[in-house]
Amino acid sequence: MNPQDDAEYSATVLGSHWIVRPGQDRTLAEQGTGEGRPARPDRVEGSVLRFGPGVTAAVAHRTHPAPAAAPPPSPAPSPRRLRRHALPALVLLCVLAYLAWPRLGPPLEVRDVAVTARPDVLGCGGTAHITGLVTTNGRPGTLSYRWVRSDGTASGVLKEVTVRGRQQARLHLRWTFQGTGHHTARAELRILAPAPRTLTTHFTYDCP
Fold first, then answer.
1. How far apart are CA 159 and CA 144, in angstroms?
2. Which pLDDT score, from 0 to 100, does residue 86 have?
3. Are 187 and 176 in contact (CB under 8 A)?
4. Residue among 180, 186, 184, 208 at smallest CA distance from 199
5. Where along the chain do the CATH 2.60.40.10 domains lie?
6. What is the spatial distance between Cα 142 and Cα 147, in angstroms, rounded to a whole number?
7. Cys bridge to 132: 98, 147, 170, 171, which one at CB 3.0-4.6 A?
8. Antiparallel, parallel or unpaired: β 197-207 and 121-122
């Protein structure tokens, strides 16, 4: 009988008492094949011979192990652990906000400017001390300014750096006179940045 022509053909499992050893009776083997030689088993496991293309359920069970069980889900963090990490995170946020405030806050702003000259009247060879008092909003930044004198001279562009929390900046000019005469002098402070402003003060030079 040919297994390929029989639709009901299935694998056959023979016990060890059906195995034909060399030198024993070969009648069963010859009857099973229909030829003069014994059939070659598909697979040998211990004392069981398997014929045909089929594999028993026991062999399939040993060949394919059961899939591993899925690991259990990780437990959710406890509220105590969350509270323990909340304080360091809050401190870190405060430090970052403190460091970023100079850049993220409002820019430097000039709120008031006052210019004074001391003394009001100079004698022979005297020097006038002219002070410009600039009031700001206390933000860090740079003031750009220039002094202009009534004798036609002017300084270059000067800069004053302000730090955070400092709300006043003092800008100084010294003007020295020589010789005789009577002269009314004028000193002008021009704020160029962050916003343009101009203030003027007067004093007198008197040398008979």
1. 5
2. 73
3. no
4. 186
5. 110-207
6. 16
7. 171
8. parallel
